């Protein structure tokens, strides 16, 4: 019996977080510094919980370990992907992530972290940090030591609907006023290069990881070009943002009723706008803004009805 697997997210407070996850998505959050919604996660630092059906109450890691048939009997010790929504009410630290090889060696077997961002919403003048200007490792180190951040960091203006692919080794940061959906490898390893010398509520600066950042940063910067392809089908528009080693990511804009065939190991789906229903052989399931679910292997034919926008991904 294959049905959609609906998940309850976990939420993370961050020094740069805000309230948009509550006001925009109606999540029941008390903290005004909620930075991250770990929407589809089997990472031990924040596991999504199945909230209905035969697996209700299990976390995603348990489901991966005990019912691998739901995921096309994929190999691997850990569930490979992690989907988040991030509310950057303030600037994030300037950071970089390691690749699989470096993380495995230096972070107790953790995966590396290649990620991508879909801009859900942002302020008119919003921007991100994406890349750096150093041409050699020596120049990179010198500019860090001299605090030449304005000269070192590349700033990019953003608008709703933009998509950025952020391979491991890329210097990056969200800046204030940006709300994104992030698809990433299932990793929680981040190396901070610079944090604006700010302090937490206890007056302490957050830890920096300068040497590890120097070790893993791609120099010179290599911008990852994204060329979305758009396919219009009756009742929907399908945008393919990226298909690469770790994940493929799409936007499904459903305008009426569309039939699909689930032939992947699994699909991760996050509803960003609107409402509708999924129709399967096992019944109909309501979906609305803020709903996150997995369409398991073997689901076969299904329909999505309504006026609804989703970000969909798979390994």
How does the SSE layout of this entry go?
Layout: E1 5-8, E2 10-18, H1 20-23, E3 34-40, E4 49-50, H2 60-66, E5 81-88, E6 94-96, H3 100-106, E7 115-122, E8 127-132, H4 137-145, H5 149-152, E9 153-157, E10 163-166, E11 172-174, E12 178-185, E13 191-194, H6 210-216, E14 229-233, E15 236-243, E16 248-254, E17 257-262, E18 266-280, E19 283-288, E20 292-296, E21 300-314
Antiparallel strand pairs: 1-4, 1-20, 2-3, 3-5, 5-12, 6-13, 7-10, 7-12, 8-9, 8-11, 14-15, 15-16, 16-21, 17-21, 18-19, 18-20, 18-21
Written description of the protein model:
This protein has 315 residues and is mainly beta. It has 2 domains: 5-216, Jelly Rolls (Sandwich), CATH 2.60.120.10; 229-314, Jelly Rolls (Sandwich), CATH 2.60.120.10. Helix content is 12%, strand content 44%. The protein has 6 helices and 21 strands. It is globular.
Average pLDDT = 96
> What is the name of the CATH superfamily of the largest domain?
Jelly Rolls
Stated plainly, the CATH topology of the largest domain is called Jelly Rolls
Judging from the principal axes of the Cα atoms, what is the shape? globular
Biggest sheet character: 10 strands, antiparallel
CATH class of the largest domain: Mainly Beta
Tell me the series of helices and strands, N- to C-terminal.
EEHEEHEEHEEHHEEEEEHEEEEEEEE
Q: How many independent structural domains?
A: 2
Q: Supply the number of helical segments.
A: 6
Distance between the termini: 23 Å
Find the count of extended strands (DSSP E, 2+ residues): 21
């Amino acid at each position: 019996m294959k049905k959609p697997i609906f998940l309850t997210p976990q939420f993370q407070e961050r020094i740069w977080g805000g309230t948009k996850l509550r006001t925009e998505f109606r999540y029941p959050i008390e903290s005004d510094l909620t930075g991250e919604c770990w929407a589809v996660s089997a990472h031990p630092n924040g596991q999504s919980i199945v909230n209905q059906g035969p697996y209700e109450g299990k976390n995603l890691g348990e489901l991966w370990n005990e019912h691998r048939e739901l995921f096309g009997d994929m190999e691997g010790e850990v569930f490979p992907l992690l989907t988040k929504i991030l509310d950057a009410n303030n600037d994030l630290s300037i950071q970089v992530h390691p690749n699989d090889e470096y993380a495995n060696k230096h972070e107790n077997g953790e995966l590396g972290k290649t990620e991508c961002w879909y801009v859900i919403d942002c302020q008119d003048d919003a921007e991100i940090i994406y890349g750096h200007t150093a041409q050699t490792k020596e120049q990179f180190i010198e500019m860090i030591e001299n605090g030449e951040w304005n000269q070192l960091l590349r700033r990019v203006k953003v608008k709703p609907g933009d998509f950025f692919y952020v391979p491991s080794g890329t210097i990056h940061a969200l800046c204030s006023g940006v709300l994104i959906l992030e698809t990433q490898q299932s990793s929680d390893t981040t190396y901070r290069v610079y944090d604006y010398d700010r302090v937490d509520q206890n007056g302490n600066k957050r830890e920096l990881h300068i040497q590890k950042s120097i070790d893993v940063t791609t120099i010179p910067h290599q911008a990852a070009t994204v060329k979305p392809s758009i396919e219009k089908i009756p009742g929907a528009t399908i945008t393919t943002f990226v298909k690469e080693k770790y994940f493929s990511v799409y936007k499904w804009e459903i305008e009426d009723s569309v039939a699909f065939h689930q032939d992947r190991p699994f699909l991760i789906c996050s509803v960003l706008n609107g409402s509708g229903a999924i129709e399967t052989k096992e019944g109909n399931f309501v979906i609305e803004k803020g709903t996150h679910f997995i369409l398991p292997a073997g689901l076969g034919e299904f329909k999505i009805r309504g006026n609804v926008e989703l970000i969909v991904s798979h390994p």
